[in-house]
Amino acid sequence: MQDMQALIGILGGMGPLATVDLMAKIVAGTPAERDQEHVPVVAWNVPQVPDRQKAMDSGAPSPLPAMLQGIERLNAAGATRIAIACNTAHHWFDALAAASRAPIIHIADATLAGLAQSGASDGPVGLIATRGTLRSQLYQRRFAQAGIACIENTEDELDRLFIPGCYAIKRGGLDEGAALLEAAARALLDKGAARLVLACTEVPPAFEHAASALLPICIDPTRALAQACISYWLQARPVQHV
Amino acid sequence: MQDMQALIGILGGMGPLATVDLMAKIVAGTPAERDQEHVPVVAWNVPQVPDRQKAMDSGAPSPLPAMLQGIERLNAAGATRIAIACNTAHHWFDALAAASRAPIIHIADATLAGLAQSGASDGPVGLIATRGTLRSQLYQRRFAQAGIACIENTEDELDRLFIPGCYAIKRGGLDEGAALLEAAARALLDKGAARLVLACTEVPPAFEHAASALLPICIDPTRALAQACISYWLQARPVQHV
Fold first, then answer.
1. What is the average pLDDT value for chain A, to the nearest integer?
2. Using CA atoms, how far apart are residues A93 and A174, in angstroms rounded to an integer?
3. What span, in angstroms and rounded, lies between the C-alpha atoms of A200 and A134?
4. Do B76 and A76 touch (CB under 8 A)?
5. C-alpha count within 13 angstroms, C-beta hemisphere, residue A35
6. Under a CB-based contact definition with an 8 Å cutoff, are residues B5 and B236 in contact?
7. Partners of residue A151 on adjacent β-strands
């Protein structure tokens, strides 16, 4: 056995499918000829976290204590870098990062890095995201610094399309959810978006499940976060003597 | 936040895709209307474990110390029940169970329970499995006690079909791997198997990826293990007050 020097921790459960999706994208994206070359991951996929959106909307119980418990357990398990498999949860990023010995990768930073690598950074992007993610300006601030404008759904579109689509996915209705989310996406294209950032971790698996015609113009922050995890591992992994 | 009373630990990484598959099957199989009703899982998906098959064949370094580290970390993280996302690793089941405070679910027991529930227990089953799983008699002993005969691939079929198929999947060659594994499966049907137990966690995702025509007569121990985890959670979960 080699020394365990680098270990990715995933703070998940929000929802649990998003964590599975991130883990699958880490495996799929890793150049590996055998098991031992894959990224070591410990995942805290515990969905008993109060609803993030409701907490931001109405002062319902905060998800922060449950998320801090996950961060503590991941650090105790030896994680040396942490990824959060939920965009909205990044609203609490500063508090989580302050409590974590292991540095936390920000999903919007990973997305920007992916955009820069792809070279395709022309025109405004449409943000498919929860109201919480939009209000937190997680993406808009970072994208503005990179000279990229963001287009958002209206309150009405969020209420009629995005939110019911997201909750449909959470209860297993992938087809129904994908149809609603595609309608939300088309509203952004009508307003001039050249590409779409699927900035809610529930959305990419639903679009992939539905083989959405929009996929070619979609940017998947979950895939970008997976790539950031892989890049960290490739740079940090020890010499192998398994 | 509710009290965390029940938590599934997954000992994974052997290979990492098998763990993702088990986690996906836990999410898909859980009756849940919202995130908080899903099964809480902590997954140790760390593939830096010496090759199980080589250790059994030739006295190469044992995977047991790395697996024991995973069991220790899962217990430390609060796991109250543990599943092992690798059939061959069950060769070391007794040593792992002895070192674990949390009881470990045996994948062959979960498979038998699934078979009993399905009611479809007629005729011999073909075992698609590594040489290590076959030699360990993990399935044969338990199935014999239930009156179910097992048919195995020959040494030659293992060398030509099963083993290269399995290693193809581990390096990402799902189509190539599925074709080789299907040939191994057809050899078992020729010898009188009525159904197939896909007793290597690499196989179900490959067959699903390839939409194998054999799937209707396949029994998936990973799905059975997922169901055992779900049943445990449904029985053990606390009253929810999220």
1. 92
2. 28
3. 10
4. yes
5. 25
6. yes
7. A126
Q: Distance (Å, rounded) from C-alpha B43 to C-alpha B9?
A: 6
pLDDT tens, A126-156? 999 999 899 999 999 999 998 999 999 999 9
For residue A241, pLDDT over 50 is answered with no
Q: Nearest Cβ partner of B47 from A35, A44, A172?
A: A35
User: Taking the model in full, what pTM does it have?
Assistant: 0.91
Q: Residue A148 in 3-state DSSP?
A: coil
Q: What is the DSSP string of B30-73?
A: S--SSGGGSPPEEEEE---S--HHHHHHH-PPPSHHHHHHHHHH
Whether B15 sits inside 8 A of A23 (CB atoms) is no
Q: Which residues 31-60 of chain B have a CB within 8 Å of chain A?
A: 32-51
Tokens of A126: 């449409």
**Amino acid residing at A206:** A
Which residue in chain A has the smallest CA separation from B22?
A20
Query: What are the tens digits of pLDDT across the range B59-108?
Result: 899 999 999 999 999 999 999 999 999 999 999 999 999 999 999 999 99
3-state secondary structure of A121: coil
Tokens of A193: 């978006």
Looking at this protein, which amino acid is placed at residue B185?
A
Distance of CA B169 to the CA centre of its chain: 15
Choose the mutation target among A1, A11, A170, A233 for the interface with B, i.e. most B CBs under 10 Å. Answer: A1
